[in-house]
Write a structure and sequence with these properties.
Keywords: Leucine-rich repeat, Plant defense, Repeat. Pfam families: LRR_R13L1-DRL21, NB-ARC, WHD_DRP. GO terms for molecular function: ADP binding. The protein is of the alpha/beta class and 1065 residues long. Among the domains are: 45 residues; 155 residues, P-loop containing nucleotide triphosphate hydrolases (Rossmann fold), CATH 3.40.50. It is built from 29 helices and 45 strands. Helix 19 runs parallel beside helix 20. It is globular. The N and C termini lie far apart (86 Å).
Length: 1065
């Protein structure tokens, strides 16, 4: 056994040698890889890389788009003006890295596009054209209630899609299309979309290949080339100089222009090289980069060598992290924490400072790669451009390999990291002897050296036989990622070789609750991710053997069931349920000082301050999120004793988020009211703390979000400067004041106050004195809150509200409210702020609201109910509904028809006194496709037709005629007016109890597809001239036997007939 000093010396020498080899090897490796770049780039285009997550999204990643205004405007014009009754496809073609996705995002978010289309859908296709998967992506945009989640049949999915896009004009973006071999899949995907007969539906597709554009396009393609020299230089400067004040340095300008010219207008190249130059804005560094450029001049229209140059400048530790990402499928959406955990499992992340967590350092690595253009931040995920993915595969080819379905090239003996993608295999139900084929492929792998095994796909059961024996040989395996077939986690029991495993992700919807015992012998395990496993307490008692486990991603019940969890001192997240059992007492938390997030529930089992102190929360310096919960009120302590317990649970001053639920004390804990205890607190959420009376927040200078829910005895509140303030269910709250020196001004974005009936004194600035809510103004300081975008007030007994311009206004159950300044323009003129987009006013019987409504064509949501002098009305994007007991005439004095030009469905219902509709007003509904009239007994057909029909003859596609019991037949004028509806696709007759016949010329409605007849007992036959040949659906309910018989006989293969909710064919 060597002494520790000698071991340390040898380790340091080896480290020096490795770094020297890496440094010397980079230049040799660079030359060798550069020669293979073009070959690899070409071959990558023909590979069928499967997807697990999709990469590109509609969310803008770029803060500014350079040089694409002309192309954007041209595409928008083509999408809006080029619409017809058929579904049109507009392809955008260009090389990889030229900016196709960025341009299409630019189009997607344009105001003209949002105003023109009812639905905007974004789908990333990539190299794997999977009709079922793509249909599911489309449904994600179309359906809110997700009725398709448990459906696997393409037929069922397409039926759901067809139903949910009916009568909606949509724009579908198909980003990054590759597949041109088989047109049948494309036709199959579009089938339910083409059934929607609304004019102007469009598909906008991006692709690198002309052949794909030719296969799918119905319009002339847009061919995208590099940015022009002037715009490209502006973009390149923004990437290279960023905020550096040497932007105008003549030497740097000269070198920069030389480099920029060689980039051929490719935005991705500008991002990559610009990021490289920005790391050192000096003449020497830029000259070195320029000189290296000479070896890359022979590669026309190929930017991979450019990207490779940026990669070469990365430090070795970032090169390792980046190249490792080649294991993930192309178009994968990376979870930042998941990726950092994987890097840590391979020892890629190193940190010399013991006070800094590896996760923090790993996150810095990831942000550095984002900063240098190798990743892009996309909401909560990270994405990699497909050319970057190709680059990662190229530079990692000695150590990383991917087996794609049943296809695989040569796997080098040096490979230590392997991923298997079986998505394509999932689709192929006719593969014979698949296990034998996988056996042959897997035999090429040198399993003894393998450190990573990732399996992407959900039919891993076909692989288990092949993997069982081989995984036992993988004694160096550190990371295993696999789907658990059948939801039984015990399947992985035979796959685990616990010697060196550091990361296990076994994902699936688990049905059998038993953890496999072998897990407890993975003593080096750092991450265990079992997803949404919901087994209750079937956790091995020796789970606490995993003393190196840093992250347990599992259902709360798994956390709750770990025996003596206090031994797992490396854990950083824990949901802990306190029990009166030695192995589950609060003292288990004592030594868990690595915790970053802690949820402690059932705190009613902690009886004293001393017992609470045993948890030693003040020693947990990394703790950022803390949730404390009391659940059983029957076991609650007296208020003073409850306060003592909470005092004993004082956290470290670094805490950022605190949630307390069910606390029984009457006052704040000492540490929460102290100016020095929780100085970093940013989010405070208090709920069901029914005895709490006063909450001082004057020491919380970092607080940004405050939520108080059902604090039944809280009487006063001191509010610092916030981004979000939510007060709900506070029956005794009387006073809300601004903390001294803290102004609630420019930061506030969301203000919600509900069910606070006693709130009558509110001062939000020290410079304002207290005031009575019933006096001249309420919230006077809010006139300065220009950033406030959402205001929601409910069940408040106030008379006047003064607020600034808003985007969202919600006023609910405010019986005394008479005045709201948001409903004023200048002086005393009634009006609405131009910023409003969403309005809800319910049950405000004294409020004066300016009309006609809606106040603007930009209102996307509106709901008015219980307001004097106003009909009940609502807008939900393109649908409008109005109902009123008093309304007799519907014209521009009631509704601002000029602001309803985008409405597609107009519904009038339960208006018993309505006798007239203004044809002039209705003529402004230029997009109207469906008119529904229900329960308006005094509105006769002569009031509707022919004027209303004539004004909307070119757009209306659906008409539900009002139920008129007295109508016997249509007049000749009314029948002629009906024929003017050339676009009519749906027609409904309801509750015409005396109508003797259908319109004689019904057959001439050549666009009609659906005819519905309900409660029309006097109609005994179909028109003599028959039905339109375009008719596809005929539905009857509660009609005469004679009519039902005729309709039954009319059923054909093309015409589906449904009588009393049953199809006859």
């Amino acid at each position: 056994m060597l002494p520790l000093e000698i071991k340390d010396s040898i380790s340091k020498r080896i480290n020096v040698i490795v770094n020297l080899l890496c440094s010397n090897g980079n230049s040799v490796k660079g030359v060798l890889q550069l020669e293979n770049l073009r070959t690899m780039a070409t071959s990558s285009k023909s590979q069928n890389i499967a997807r697990d997550h999709y990469m590109t999204t509609s969310v803008p990643i770029e803060s500014k788009v350079y040089g694409r205004d002309a192309e954007r405007d041209k595409i928008i014009d083509m999408l809006i003006k080029g619409g017809s009754s058929d579904l049109n496809v507009l392809p955008v073609v260009g090389s990889g890295g030229i900016g196709k996705t960025t341009l299409v995002r630019y189009v997607y978010h344009a105001k003209r596009i949002k105003d023109h289309f009812d639905l905007l859908i974004w789908v990333c296709v990539s190299t794997n054209f999977d009709v079922v998967g793509l249909t599911l992506q489309i449904l994600d945009h179309v359906c809110e209630d997700r009725p398709y989640e448990k459906k696997s049949s393409l037929n069922k999915l397409q039926e759901i899609l067809q139903e949910n896009i009916r009568n909606k004009r949509f724009l579908l973006v198909m980003d990054d299309m590759w597949e041109e071999k088989d047109r049948s899949g494309w036709i199959k995907l579009l089938a339910p979309l083409k059934s929607n007969k609304v004019k102007g539906c469009m598909v906008l597709a991006t692709t690198r290949t002309k052949s794909v554009a030719k296969m799918i396009g119905t319009m002339d393609e847009i061919t995208l080339s590099g940015l022009d020299e002037k715009e490209f230089w502006l973009f390149f400067k923004a990437c290279a100089f960023r905020n550096d004040n040497r932007e105008h340095h003549p030497s740097l300008q000269s070198i920069g222009k030389q480099i920029a010219k060689a980039l051929k207008g490719f935005p991705l190249a500008a991002q990559s090289v610009g990021a490289l130059l920005s790391t050192d804005v000096s003449y020497e560094h830029w000259t070195t980069v320029r000189d290296k450029w000479k070896s890359l001049q022979g590669y026309d229209d190929d930017i991979l060598p450019i990207l490779k140059l940026s990669y070469d400048y990365l430090p070795v530790y970032l090169q390792r992290c980046f190249s490792y990402c080649s294991l993930y499928p192309e178009d994968y959406g990376f979870d930042g924490k998941e990726l950092v955990h994987a890097w840590i499992s391979q020892n890629f992340v190193q940190c010399k400072d013991p006070t800094i967590r590896l996760e923090e350092t790993g996150h810095e690595y990831l942000e550095k790669l984002v900063d240098l253009g190798f990743f892009q931040k996309d909401g909560s995920h990270y994405v990699m451009h497909d050319l970057m993915h190709v680059l990662a595969g190229m530079v990692s080819s000695n150590e990383c390999a991917t087996i794609d379905g049943l296809k695989s090239g040569a796997i080098r003996a040096s490979v230590r990291h392997l991923s298997i993608i079986i998505t394509d295999y999932d689709k192929d139900e006719h593969v014979s002897n698949s296990s034998e084929k996988f056996d042959k492929i897997l035999q090429k792998v040198s399993w003894q050296k393998l450190r990573t095994l990732m399996v992407f796909g959900r039919r891993t059961i076909h692989l288990l036989g092949s993997l069982h024996t081989l995984c036992k040989e993988a004694k160096c395996l550190r990371l295993l990622r696999i789907h658990v077939p059948g939801g039984d986690i015990s399947y992985i029991n035979s796959l685990l070789n616990p010697c060196h495993l550091r990361y296990i992700m076994a994902y699936g919807v688990y049905q059998k609750p038993a953890f496999c015992q072998v897990l407890t012998r993975c003593y080096h395990l750092q991450v265990l991710n079992v997803g949404i496993f919901t087994g209750d307490r079937d956790v091995p008692t020796d789970m606490n053997n995993l003393v190196n486990l840093r992250h347990l991603i599992a259902h709360d019940k798994v956390h709750h069931a770990i025996y003596c969890v206090g031994k797992m001192t490396s854990l950083q997240e824990l949901k802990f349920k306190v029990q009166n059992v030695g192995s589950f007492e609060i003292g288990q938390l004592q030594s868990m000082n690595e915790l970053v997030s802690l949820g402690a529930s059932q705190l009613e089992n902690v009886k004293t301050k001393e017992e609470a102190r045993v948890a030693m929360l003040t020693h947990k310096e990394y703790l950022e999120t803390l949730s404390l919960s009391w659940e059983n009120s029957s076991m609650s302590l007296q208020p003073e004793a409850a306060k003592d317990v909470l005092d004993g649970l004082q956290p470290h001053q670094n805490l950022k988020t605190l949630e307390i639920t069910g606390y029984g004390g009457a006052t704040s804990p000492t540490w929460l009211s102290s100016a020095f205890s929780v100085t970093s607190l940013q989010i405070l959420h208090l709920e069901e703390c029914k005895e709490w009376q006063i909450l001082p927040t004057h020491g919380m200078h970092s607080l940004r979000k405050l939520t108080l829910i059902r604090m039944l005895n809280l009487m006063e509140l001191s509010v610092p400067s916030l981004v979000e303030l939510i007060l709900i269910g506070m029956p005794k709250l009387e006073k809300c004041t601004g903390s001294y020196g803290m102004e609630l001004t420019s930061h506030l974005r969301v203000l919600t106050i509900k069910n606070c009936p006693q709130l009558n004194e509110l001062t939000l600035f020290q410079s304002y004195s207290s005031f009575d809510a019933e006096q001249k103004s309420w919230f006077p300081s809010l006139s300065k809150l220009w950033a406030l975008s959402e205001l929601e007030l409910m069940d408040l007994h106030v008379g006047r509200v003064s607020v600034p311009s808003l985007e969202k206004l919600v006023l609910t159950k405010m019986p005394n409210l008479e005045f709201c300044s948001s409903l004023m323009t200048q002086g005393d003129q009634m009006g609405w702020p131009s910023s409003l987009r969403r309005i809800t006013i319910h049950d405000c019987p004294c409020l004066i609201v300016p009309h006609p409504l809606p106040p603007s064509a930009l209102i996307s949501e509106m709901s008015i109910r219980g307001v004097p002098g106003l009909a009940q009305m609502s807008i939900n994007h393109r649908w409008f509904t109005i109902e009123s007991n008093e309304l007799s005439v519907l014209d521009d004095s009631i509704l601002a028809f000029s602001n309803l030009g985008g409405i597609r469905l107009f519904q009038i219902r339960r208006c018993p006194n309505l006798i007239s509709l203004s044809s002039e007003s209705f003529s402004q509904l230029i997009a109207l496709e469906t008119l529904c009239i229900h329960d308006c007994p005094n509105l006769t057909m002569s009031n509707i037709m022919p004027e209303i029909v004539q004004e909307n003859s070119t757009s209306a596609s659906s008409l539900v005629l009002p139920s008129l019991e007295s109508l016997v037949s249509l007049t000749g004028e009314q029948e002629r007016a009906l024929q003017l509806l050339t676009s009519l696709q749906e027609l409904e007759f309801s509750f015409y109890t005396h109508l003797l016949s259908l319109p004689a010329n019904l057959h001439s409605l050549t666009s009609l597809e659906r005819l519905s007849i309900f409660h029309c007992q006097c109609i005994t036959r179909l028109p003599d001239m028959g039905l339109p040949t375009s008719l596809r659906h005929l539905q009857l309910s509660y009609c005469s036997d004679e009519l039902s018989m005729q309709c039954r006989m009319a059923a054909t293969e093309k015409l589906r007939v449904r009588i009393d909710n049953q199809y006859v064919n």
